[in-house]
Design goal:
Domain F-box: 4-50
Number of helices: 10
Strand order of the largest sheet: 5-4-3-2-1-6-7-8-9-11-13-17-16-15-14
Largest sheet: 15 strands, mixed
Helix content: 25-40%
Organism: Caenorhabditis latens
Distance between the termini: 77 Å
Strand content: 25-35%
Protein name: F-box domain-containing protein
Low-confidence stretches: none
Radius of gyration: 25 Å
Keywords: Signal
Order of helices and strands: HHHEEEEEHEHEHEHEEHEEHEHEEEE
Signal peptide: 1-21
Length: 322
């Protein structure tokens, strides 16, 4: 009769040497046995970049630098269930004696994940609060669903303190636009909204409450008078924004004279180039501004409106110089 080898009675260094001979799935399975085995596996420093996709009934962990592995954590109940795919071979562990959020915590721990690169939010059927509480900081969060629906809005709002960059890709007009405003007021570094095959309503109030350092809006239904009013409020000192760059992309050609009416702008020739540097480490840390229309406050603050008309596409950049 074979006798089980008392692996965990060995000193740490011999255990680590044995674990190094295992493949990644074996190490991962070993890490789930107990808190101690999880700590031992962490000592192997199997650091991996992790992306998370929140699906209807499970959380999917992807490894961009190791595409042969995929981990699914199921959300149907608080009893952990996990499916692991390695090189097209699936392994499953059911009825693990820990909760799903603790299982996620152990998974992030064993792969030394202190920052999630990307989290994509769909429409979860289950409460995401315990999962979100477990997550570390996230570089980028994106959603392709209607964020104004309660099942997607609540977890997205809970994620705001953990991220500084949000991408929203709605497939239809938002049902409750006022919920979007609760996202716009967040102290983000960057927010981008790019609808699929639809227009996105945006009015002056939405612009005024946007508190991101950089905001990019595609396919917007925005009026010339709204943009003109926004610039006048800024010039008169009525609003003080932390925004540094505001960008609109639309197929509607605004009349630039109506946008700039009453602002005493100074038009710079296209041959005049200036480097705009963002104060935060964003995706595009600096932009080259060619020409543009300068507007100056009494206190000396400067904003440049750069209008770039392309065939069937019009881009409006507003730079707030520090």
């Amino acid at each position: 009769m074979a006798t089980a080898f008392p692996l965990l009675r060995l000193p740490l260094l011999p255990i680590l040497q044995i674990c190094k001979s295992m493949d990644i799935i074996e190490v991962f399975a070993f890490s789930l046995l107990s808190k101690r085995t999880n700590t031992i596996a962490k000592h192997l420093k199997m650091t991996r970049t992790i992306n998370i996709n929140v699906k209807e009934n499970h959380v999917e962990l992807c490894f961009p630098n190791c595409r042969d592995i995929l981990i699914n954590l199921h959300l149907e109940n608080d009893q952990a269930q996990i499916n692991v795919k390695l090189q097209d071979r699936w392994s499953s562990w059911n009825n693990l004696p820990i909760s799903t959020n603790k299982l996620l915590n152990r998974t992030l721990n064993v792969f030394n994940c202190e920052l999630i690169d990307d989290l994509v939010m769909e429409i979860p059927r289950y409460d995401m609060s315990p999962i979100i509480a477990t997550l570390p900081n996230i570089k980028e969060v994106s959603s392709r669903a209607d964020i104004t629906r309660e099942m997607i809005f609540r977890p997205l709002k809970a994620l705001l303190p953990k991220t500084s960059i949000i991408y929203l890709f709605p497939r239809a007009e938002y049902v409750y636009p006022e919920k979007l405003q609760e996202i716009l007021i967040g102290n983000l570094d960057f927010i981008e909204i790019g609808p699929f095959d639809c227009y996105f309503r945006l009015d002056l109030d939405d612009i005024l409450i946007t508190n991101s350092t950089k905001a990019v809006f595609h396919c917007v239904n925005l009026k010339e008078r709204d943009l003109n009013r926004f610039l006048k409020l800024w010039k008169n000192g009525t609003i003080n924004t932390r925004m540094e760059h505001l960008k609109f992309v639309t197929d509607e050609d605004f009349n630039r004279d109506k946008v700039l009416n009453g602002l005493n702008v100074i038009e710079q020739p296209r041959t005049t180039t200036r480097t705009f540097e963002f104060s935060r480490n964003q995706i595009d840390y600096r932009n080259i501004v060619s020409g543009g229309h300068d507007i100056r406050r009494v206190n000396g603050d400067l904003v440049t409106v750069d209008i770039d008309d392309k065939p069937a596409l019009h881009i409006y950049n507003i730079y707030f110089w520090s």
